[in-house]
Design goal:
With 312 residues, the chain is an alpha+beta fold. 16% of the residues lie in helices and 29% in strands. It has helices at 2-23, 165-171, 177-180, 196-208, 216-220, and strands at residues 34-38, 44-50, 53-56, 79-83, 92-97, 103-107, 115-117, 121-124, 129-135, 141-142, 156-157, 174-176, 191-192, 252-255, 261-264, 267-275, 281-288, 295-300, 304-305, 310-311. The strands form seven sheets. Strands 7-8-5-10 form a four-stranded antiparallel beta sheet, with no helix packed on it.
Length: 312
Amino acid sequence: MKAHNKFLFYSLFILIFVFSSCKSDVPEVLLGTKGTVTDIDGNVYQTITIGTQTWMIENLRSTRYLNGDSINRSYMGDTTFYIHSNDTLRSDTIHVNYNGAVFMLESKKDKDISLTYDVNSIFVSTKGETFTLKRNSQHLDVKNDLKFYKIVQGASCNYNQTINNDSIVSLGKLYNYYAATDSRKIAPQNWHVPSRADWLALVEYVKNNPGSSKYIAKALAGVEKWNRDTLEYSIGCDLSLNNSSGFTAMPTGIRRVDGQFEGIGKLGQWWSSTEGNDTSSSWMFNLTYSYSDAFITVVDIRKCLSIRCVKD
């Protein structure tokens, strides 16, 4: 009888051990109070509290600023361009719809401008300068095929210019830095684009409270859409162990300064509102599928990244 009881005791012990071990493989969500927030377009986003901060767990996809103004995609009106000094072309071309309108190109440095134009284009030979195309007629609008990184006003796009709504909802939109930091505010009421300090606070909290994901990047990354990787504790190694924080970061990719899209499945990058070491850069938050760490670093403001908002 004693032997039988002893057998039952050890069997129960083994079962408890096995189930406890299996349970540790499923990431528990850190203290997070869940909720929702709605942007000016009526899009509803899931939110979660992580430490003392409340974050969206979806990327922003708003098409308007908080005051109702459209985030400029057609580039109408007085439109500003930066002709970068490192451009390889000897001259640059600004495409416009002319239609008989009167137009004028003004230099920010207020000096003579070397340019020629035909019916639909202005050719600028000066580089390393900012110019403004003055629209003196409602018919003079800059075309959508303008090189994206020439724009120095708020603009947005969808990855690979997709029009698939499910994809837009899943990935959110990509925005340039000017949209992220526009004074009209792109975030919902009582929310804001995170500063560098906001991102640092998130990383510090998750570093000290990684949950069963064990590493910062895994704790912040979602369990879907990331490329696979064999490096232990990288985001891409066993996606089921990701997201103990509930932050649900997605590998939405970016738009480069030359207008090309890259990185979907591999990385996610999110703007901060904090200017970098100079006026041509900003701090951003980065996760990459093959790493176990998160990075907060500077990036060229001509790129287009995702936006995650944090509550005021």
